[in-house]
Amino acid sequence: EAALVLEGIEKGYNRGKPSEVIVLRGATLSVARGEVVALVAPSGAGKSTLLHIAGLLDTPDRGRVVHGGREMGGLSDRTRTEARRAEVGFIYQFHHLLPEFSALENIVLPQLANGVAQREAEARGRDLLGRVGVAARADHRPAALSGGEQQRVAFCRALANAPKLLLADEPTGNLDPATSEQVFSALMELVRETGLSALIATHNLELAARMDRVVRLDQGRVV
Ligand code: ADP
Ligand code: ADP
C-alpha cells in the first residue's frame, strides 16, 4: 500500500473571478512506503499547493487524496486535522522555530500537544538532535544557531511525532551550497533510519538525483 496517493488533483484559486488561476490540472502521484520522491518544478508551478493538498492543509477542487490506503476526501475538518497532526511532518525553506524556546523545547512542544509525557518527549528530542549532529545545541534558542543548525532542528521537530509522511518545501533553499549538502545528508540519513516516506520539493537537481525518484510538475500535471 502506498504511503501517499494523489489522483487527478485539480486546484485553482479565485475560481470564477477575473483573477482566476488554475494551478493543478489533474496531478497524479504516488509515494510508496519508505520511498523518497523529489518534486522538481519552476517557481510558481504549484509545488506548495500540491504539498499543502498532500499534507491535508488544503483540499483539492477535484481528485483523491489517500494516505496509507485511507481516503481523506470525505473527512470532517477535525478528523483531517487529527490525521495531519498524527501522520504528516512538514519542513519549509525557513525553519519557523519558536524563537523564545530552546531547540529541544521546539521538539518537545509538539509531542506534549500530542499527549506524550515530558520525560519521554525530551528523550526523543535529544535522540533526534543527536542523530542530526546538534545535540550540543539542545539548550540554545534558534537565534543562537547557524542556519544549517536551525534547519536540522526543524527536521527534528517535523519528525517529533513520528509521522508516516514527510513533506518538505525547498528544505535547503535558504542555505549556501556546502551547508545545504551537509543538511541534506543529515535529513536523508534520518529519513532512511526511520523508514519514512517523503516528498521533497527542490530546485537543486543534484540533490533531487540522490532521491529514489524524481517527478516534475509541468502545466499542472506530474510528469
Ligand atoms: P510554487 O510553490 O511552485 O512556487 P505555488 O503553489 O505557491 O507554487 O503557487 C502556484 C500558483 O498559484 C502561483 O501562480 C501563485 O501565485 C498562485 N497562488 C498560490 N496561492 C494562492 C492563493 N492563496 N490565492 C491566489 N493565488 C495563489
Ligand atoms: P499544532 O498541532 O501546533 O496546532 P497544526 O496542526 O496547526 O499544529 O499544524 C501541523 C503542521 O502543519 C505544522 O508542521 C505546521 O507548521 C503546519 N501548518 C499548519 N498550518 C499551516 C499553514 N497554513 N501553512 C503551512 N503549514 C501549516
UniProtKB/TrEMBL annotation:
Pfam families listed in its UniProt record: ABC_tran (PF00005)
Give GO terms: molecular function aspect only: ATP binding
Q: What SMART domains does the entry give?
A: AAA (SM00382)
**In what residue span(s) does the ABC transporter domain sit?**
4-223
The protein's superkingdom reads Bacteria
What UniProt keywords apply to this chain's record, in alphabetical order? Answer: ATP-binding, Nucleotide-binding, Transport
Q: Which family does it belong to?
A: Belongs to the ABC transporter superfamily.
Report the protein name in the record. Answer: ABC transporter ATP-binding protein
Instruction: Recite the lineage of the species.
Output: Bacteria, Pseudomonadati, Pseudomonadota, Alphaproteobacteria, Rhodobacterales
